[in-house]
Specification:
Largest sheet of chain A: 2 strands, antiparallel
Strand order of the largest sheet of chain B: 6-7-8-3-9-10
Distance between the termini of chain B: 37 Å
Number of helices of chain A: 11
Structural class of chain B: alpha/beta
Number of domains of chain A: 1
Strand order of the largest sheet of chain A: 1-4
Radius of gyration of chain A: 19 Å
Shape of chain A: globular
Strand content of chain A: under 5%
Distance between the termini of chain A: 55 Å
CATH topology of the domain at 1-79 and 159-165 and 187-236 in chain B: Rossmann fold
Order of helices and strands of chain B: EEEHEEHEHHHHEHEHEEHH
Helix content of chain B: 25-40%
Largest interface: A-B, 19 and 28 residues
Bound molecules: adenosine-5'-triphosphate, magnesium ion
Shape of chain B: globular
Largest sheet of chain B: 6 strands, mixed
Order of helices and strands of chain A: HHHHEEEHHHHEHHH
Oligomer: heterodimer
Number of helices of chain B: 10
C-alpha cells in the first residue's frame, strides 16, 4: 500500500515537473533558446492565484486568472526581451534570460514583500480505498496533467499550427519556405509554455501553500533537468523526464536514509543518463543544418 | 514586365561580399538558369531573392511589387517558393505530412485533395511511400519530395537550387524531365545548376555567375555555344 501511495505521490510531483519541462523543451526546440525565466513565470502565476483567491476565494477563478496572466506575461517577455536578440549570440540570449528571471523575482519581492504568503487553495482531504489513503490533490494534479499532455500531443500532431511548430523546430529556413511565420509560431510557443507554467503553479500551491518569490526556482531547475533527461526539444521526452524525476523524488524522500540526498540523486541521474545517452532518453541526434 | 526582376543586388556575410551587385530577370513562362562554380554565389542569390538572407543594396521585384525587404514567409504567400539546396525535407515528418506542410500557405483547403493527387500522379514514388518518415527516404526520393512539397503551394515562380546534386545519371535525367513538365504546366522556373549541359539544354535563358558577379548571359543555346562556357562548365 505504501508503495502505491508513494508511487501516486511521485506521479503527481512528476506530472507537475512535466508541465514545467514542456515549456522549457518547446521553447528550446522552436526558439532554440533556454528560457531561464520560465520557472519564475510559475511564481507569478502563484501570486495571481493568491490575489484572486484573496479577492474572490474561488480556486478555479484563480487558476483561470493565472493562466491568462502568465500567457500574456510569456508573450510579453518574448517580445520585449528575446525577440530583439533573434540572431544574436546564444550567450547574449542566455544572459538576458537570467536577467529576466532576476527581474521577475525582484519585482515580486517589491510588490508582495519577502515574507511568504499562505495560499490555501482548497482542502480536498484524502481518498480512502481499503487501507490505501491518497490525498485528493495528487489525483487532481495527475488527472489534469494527463488530459493536458494528451491535448498537447494531439494539437502538435494534428493541427496546422502544431505541425508548423514541428517544422520550425526542425528547420527554420525550410519552414519559412512553406510560408510559416516563424515569429508567430515562437509567440504561440511561449504562450503555451507559460499557460502550462500557470497550471504547475496551481498544482504546487495545492501541495504546499507557502508562496514566495522563489517558488519557481527549484522546480524550474528540476524541470529543466527533466527536460534534458528526456531529450531537450522532445515533447514526449519532457513528459517522460518529468515523471521519472517525480517518481525518483517521491521514493527517495520516502526512505529516511537517502531522503536528505534527494536533490543530489536527481542530478546524478541526469549525469548518468547523459553519459549513457548524451541526447537524453528520447532526444534525437540531429545533423546540423547550414 | 518581368515576373521577377533583380537589380544590383549586394549581399554580405559580415565583411565578406558574396554578391557584388547582380542584376537579372525572369519572365513569365520561362526557364532561367544560373550557372557558376562552387562558391560563385548561386545559393546566396536564391536565398536572398526569397528573403531568407538580407541584402545590403539593390532591389528584388516580383510581379511589379518590391519585395526586397519582405520576410520570406510573406513572399511565399505571394506565389514564389524554393526547393533549397540540400532538399531540406522535414526529416521527422512523413511524406504525406511534408506535402501537407507544402500546402501551408494555401488559403483554400478544399483544393488540397486534388493537389495531393496531382503530386502523387507526378511522383508515383511518393504515393507508394506516403506514410514513410522522410528522413528514411533515399536521396532521389527526398528530391522528389522536396519538389512535390514546393509545388503544393501553387507557385507562380519555382526556384530550384541544384536539384540534380548527388543523384545518379538516370535520376538526373528524370529530374530535368520533371522540371520541363512543371514548366509546361505553367510554372515559371529559376534554376541553379552545376550540371551546365543539361540545364542549358532546357533553359530559355541563362546567366553565368562568377565570384558574385554576372559575367555572361544569353539564351540557353547561345551559352552552350560560347567558348568560355564550354571551357569552364562543359568540360571543354
Ligand atoms: N553563412 C555564410 N557565412 C559566410 N560566408 C558565406 C556563408 N554562406 C556562403 N558564404 C560564402 O559566400 C560565397 C558564395 O556562397 P554560395 O553558397 O552562394 O555559393 P554557391 O554558388 O551556391 O556554391 P555551391 O555551388 O558550392 O553551392 C562563398 O564564398 C561562401 O564561402
Ligand atoms: Mg549553392
Amino acid at each position: 500500500m505504501e508503495f502505491i501511495e508513494t508511487l501516486i505521490s511521485g506521479l503527481s510531483i512528476g506530472s507537475t515537473y512535466a508541465m514545467i519541462a514542456l515549456g522549457y523543451t518547446m521553447v528550446y526546440g522552436i526558439a532554440k533558446m533556454l528560457n531561464f525565466a520560465h520557472g519564475d513565470v510559475i511564481m507569478v502565476g502563484g501570486y495571481m492565484i493568491f490575489l484572486t483567491m484573496t479577492a474572490l476565494g474561488n480556486p478555479v477563478v484563480g487558476l483561470v486568472a493565472a493562466i491568462i496572466f502568465c500567457t500574456l506575461l510569456g508573450i510579453t517577455i518574448e517580445k520585449v526581451a528575446y525577440k530583439p536578440l533573434r540572431g544574436a549570440s546564444p550567450l547574449a540570449v542566455l544572459i538576458t534570460a537570467i536577467g529576466m528571471s532576476y527581474l521577475l523575482q525582484s519585482m515580486a519581492q517589491m510588490i508582495f514583500g519577502s515574507a511568504p504568503k499562505m495560499v490555501i487553495v482548497a482542502d480536498f482531504g484524502n481518498l480512502k480505498l481499503g487501507s490505501l489513503s491518497v490525498p485528493v490533490y495528487t489525483l487532481i494534479t495527475l488527472g489534469c496533467s494527463v488530459v493536458i499532455m494528451v491535448i498537447l500531443s494531439l494539437f502538435v500532431k494534428y493541427t496546422k499550427v502544431g505541425r508548423a511548430m514541428i517544422a520550425v523546430s526542425e528547420d527554420r529556413g525550410a519552414a519559412q519556405l512553406m510560408g510559416i511565420n516563424v515569429n508567430g509560431i515562437i509567440t504561440i510557443t511561449f504562450a503555451i509554455g507559460s499557460a502550462l507554467a500557470a497550471f504547475a503553479g496551481f498544482f504546487m500551491l495545492m501541495k504546499s501553500p507557502s508562496l514566495s518569490n522563489t517558488l519557481g526556482a527549484m522546480p524550474g531547475i528540476k524541470a529543466f533537468t527533466a527536460a534534458v533527461i528526456g531529450g531537450i526539444g522532445s515533447i514526449p521526452g519532457a513528459m517522460v523526464g518529468g515523471i521519472l524525476m517525480g517518481v525518483v523524488e517521491a521514493f527517495s524522500l520516502h526512505v529516511p536514509a537517502v531522503a536528505p540526498y534527494t536533490d543530489a540523486i536527481e542530478f546524478i541521474i541526469l549525469i548518468v543518463i547523459l553519459l549513457v545517452k548524451p541526447t537524453g532518453i528520447l532526444g534525437k541526434v540531429r545533423r546540423e543544418k547550414v | 514586365m518581368a515576373l521577377l526582376e533583380v537589380k544590383d543586388l549586394e549581399v554580405y556575410y559580415g565583411v565578406i561580399c558574396a554578391l557584388k551587385g547582380i542584376s537579372f530577370e525572369v519572365n513569365e513562362g520561362e526557364i532561367v538558369t544560373l550557372i557558376g562554380a562552387n562558391g560563385a554565389g548561386k545559393t546566396t542569390t536564391m536565398q536572398s531573392v526569397v528573403g531568407l538572407i538580407p541584402s545590403k543594396a539593390g532591389s528584388v521585384t516580383f510581379e511589379g511589387k518590391d519585395i526586397t525587404k519582405t520576410p520570406c514567409h510573406k513572399i511565399v504567400h505571394l506565389g514564389m517558393t524554393q526547393v533549397p539546396e540540400g532538399r531540406r525535407v522535414f526529416q521527422e515528418l512523413s511524406v504525406y505530412e511534408n506535402l501537407l506542410m507544402g500546402a501551408y500557405s494555401v488559403k483554400n483547403s478544399s483544393s488540397f485533395k486534388e493537389d495531393l493527387e496531382r503530386i502523387y500522379t507526378q511522383f508515383p514514388r511518393l504515393a507508394e511511400r506516403k506514410n514513410q518518415i522522410a528522413g528514411t527516404l533515399s536521396g532521389g526520393e527526398q528530391q522528389m519530395l522536396a519538389m512535390g512539397r514546393a509545388l503544393m503551394s501553387h507557385p507562380k515562380l519555382l526556384m530550384l537550387d541544384e536539384p540534380s546534386m548527388g543523384l545518379s545519371p538516370l535520376l538526373v535525367d528524370q529530374v530535368f524531365d520533371i522540371i520541363k513538365s512543371i514548366n509546361k504546366d505553367g510554372t515559371t522556373v529559376l534554376l541553379v545548376e552545376q550540371n551546365a549541359g543539361k540545364s542549358l539544354a532546357i533553359s530559355d535563358r541563362a546567366y553565368v555567375l562568377e565570384n558574385g558577379k554576372i559575367v555572361l548571359s544569353g539564351t540557353g543555346e547561345e551559352l552552350m555555344a560560347s567558348e568560355d562556357v564550354k571551357k569552364a562548365y562543359l568540360g571543354g
